[in-house]
Every structure is written in C-alpha cells, then in structure tokens.
C-alpha cells in the first residue's frame, strides 16, 4: 500500500468528524459508491476499491488529485496548492481529504 505523509497536528484535528457511511466518487463519468474504512483519505478509499483516480505527489502540492465536493464535506490534512477561491468553489485535494459527513459525493473532472 502507498504510504501517505502525515501533516502537522492542528486544532482542526482535535474535533473528530462524523464517520462517513457513503462516499460517492464520480470518476471518468462513472458513479462508484464506497464505504471508507477508518481515517482513510478519498484516494486511499478509492484505491482499496480498485479505482485509480488521478494522483501524483500524494503530498497536497500538485493538485493532480483535485476534485469537487458536490455533497457533504471533506477535511483536508494539507494543502499547498488550492487557492481560497478554489476551496470556496468546493475543490479539495483527494490525496489529503477525508470525508467529514455521513454522505459525501466528489466529482473528478475529466
């Protein structure tokens, strides 16, 4: 399994989000409904389900894995590349993002 870097602890990490029961990933026009295990990122959950979303650095620095949240919320561990405007539009780095709502839908743009 690919190892993912840990970001420094923050006040945000002190509050545990509710567990995600349904993560819907729309990838290459196909809808996949997944159940995240524990504290996995979206990319980790997708890989464990046999999906191959776009990734590159796995460190929150390149935006290759950026996707748009259309339902629910996602908490990012680290972000070196998305602007505040992009985040406000719903974009997250899925290599650093963990679902933080019971139902989350993300869309990878083709």
> What does the largest sheet look like?
5 strands, mixed
Indicate how many domains the architecture comprises: 1
**CATH architecture designation:** Roll
At the fold tier of CATH, the topology name is Ubiquitin-like (UB roll)
The assigned structural class equals mainly beta
User: Strand sequence of the main sheet, in spatial order?
Assistant: 2-1-7-3-5
Shape: globular
CATH superfamily: Beta-grasp domain
Spans where pLDDT lies below 50 across 5 or more residues: none
SSE order in H/E notation?
EEHEEHEEE
The percentage helix is: 10-25%
Beta-strand percentage?
25-35%
CATH C-level name: Alpha Beta
- Spatial gap, N to C terminus: 26 Å
Number of strands: 7
For the residues shown, what is the average pLDDT? 88
- Provide a count of the helices: 2
- What does the radius of gyration come to? 13 Å
3D structure, described in words:
The chain is mainly beta and about 110 residues long. The chain has one domain (about 20-105): Roll (Ubiquitin-like (UB roll)). About 10% of the residues lie in helices and about 30% in strands. It has helices spanning about 40-50, 85-90, and strands spanning about 20-25, 30-35, 65-70, 75, 90-95, 95-100, 105. It has a five-stranded mixed β-sheet with strand order 2-1-7-3-5. It has a two-stranded antiparallel ribbon with strand order 4-6. A hairpin with a 2-residue loop joins strand 1 (about 20-25) and strand 2 (about 30-35). It is globular, with a radius of gyration of 13 Å. The chain starts with about 20 loop residues before the first strand and ends with a strand. About 25% of the residues are buried. The model has no long low-confidence stretch (mean pLDDT about 90).
